Inverse folding.
DNA sequence: CAAAAACGGTACGGGACGGTATCGTATCGA
DNA sequence: TCGATACGATACCGTCCCGTACCGTTTTTG
């Protein structure tokens, strides 16, 4: 904003630190990662990190919120199946991402120990769910879904199999699998035959 | 088996060590837990632990296989819905168990770092799935399920929402939720209306 | 009673980590 | 040019941990 006197912070360092922190977190988890390793991977001195963030948890949370900006899909294809397929495939892409996919598995464990990480994780999940609920509302308005469905359960039925396959079974989640899950979901709820 | 000369191992210590190891693992994960903390919680000297297990990973795996004996539900109620409801509720009970529920969240992260833990985890999942597949086969023989269903996907649809709710959303999984998931599953696959 | 093994307690070596501090150099605005 | 700040490198402190070793004591078998 207002660069005071003195040498300004290097944006290359900012990005290198964020990337390295996320990679280290994905590899070793919060307690297992080390700030020294982040500094080494980023090609940066440890003092450069602690000049930006007062502690390790602030570093990780800041890095996570940077990637959150790049996410947030808002699909509106005009039909329920299209909306669900695109949003489900985008979730599958996150899981297949080498860093983010492992990060998801780590945060599930770390959230029980670090309230800051738990809060961040809850925010991500809530953001994703609100997109799903919005798609449900549009489908209800179109008559594609009955208006009294349990949207909480419905969202679980959509996302659950993907997370289960990625985190528990540790198998790849491809687009075909995402479509199969969506079609199973539509078999439960859809009031009109979905076009495919 | 054949107690040679000398003082025999204390079975109370065996059990105390297993319980303490599982609790510490559930609290802090494999890399975060410490053998000293296990010894203190078990009221046992650290030498008593290392006399039994050559390393920390052997301790944890041995403790995990002890609880595995107590699991392994084999429901056969004579009807598909009964089988699925009982096995799904038993999974929900595992998640609600204060130690095992947290253990499940930890092992998802630790399996990426420790092949021994990954192998153990995979064995547990496979054991559970085989019970589900057996229930599917019985249902197919009865005509309750079409014989050509994708059993892998079907098992994911059943277990996925429970794991998602427990691990990602961090909400309790009660029996009513388990039944809702089973009924949604039956709405997809069941060839005859399920009795409820 | 004697040998053998387990036990609690303790100490140690070797290493890793978070966070702080310091030093000389580099890069900005005025 | 000068003051102010960032940077890399390094050292440091206090803490923790795995695994081993040793002590004296206790419990079992023969």
């Amino acid at each position: 904003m207002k660069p005071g006197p003195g040498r300004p912070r290097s944006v290359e360092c900012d990005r290198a630190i964020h990337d390295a922190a996320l990679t280290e977190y994905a590899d070793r988890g919060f307690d297992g990662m080390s700030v020294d390793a982040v500094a080494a991977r980023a090609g940066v001195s440890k003092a450069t990190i602690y000049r930006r963030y007062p502690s390790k948890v602030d570093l990780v949370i800041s890095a996570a919120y940077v990637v959150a900006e790049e996410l947030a899909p808002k699909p509106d294809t005009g039909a329920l199946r299209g909306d669900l397929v695109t949003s489900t495939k985008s979730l599958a892409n996150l899981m297949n991402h080498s860093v983010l996919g492992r990060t998801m598995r780590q945060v599930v464990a770390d959230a029980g120990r670090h309230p800051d990480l738990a809060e961040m994780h809850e925010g991500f999940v809530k953001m994703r769910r609100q997109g799903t609920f919005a798609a449900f509302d549009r489908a209800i308005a179109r008559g594609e879904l009955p208006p009294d469905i349990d949207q909480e359960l419905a969202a679980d039925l959509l996302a659950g199999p993907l997370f289960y396959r990625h985190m528990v079974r540790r198998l790849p989640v491809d687009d075909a699998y995402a479509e199969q899950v969506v079609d199973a979901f539509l078999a439960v709820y859809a009031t009109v035959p979905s076009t495919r």
Q: What stands out?
A: Residues 3-8, 34-36, 46-47, 50, 54-56 of chain B lie near DNA strand D (CB under 10 Å from a C1'). The first helix of chain B runs from residue 11 to 32. The mean pLDDT of chain B is 94. The two ends of chain B are 51 Å apart (CA to CA).
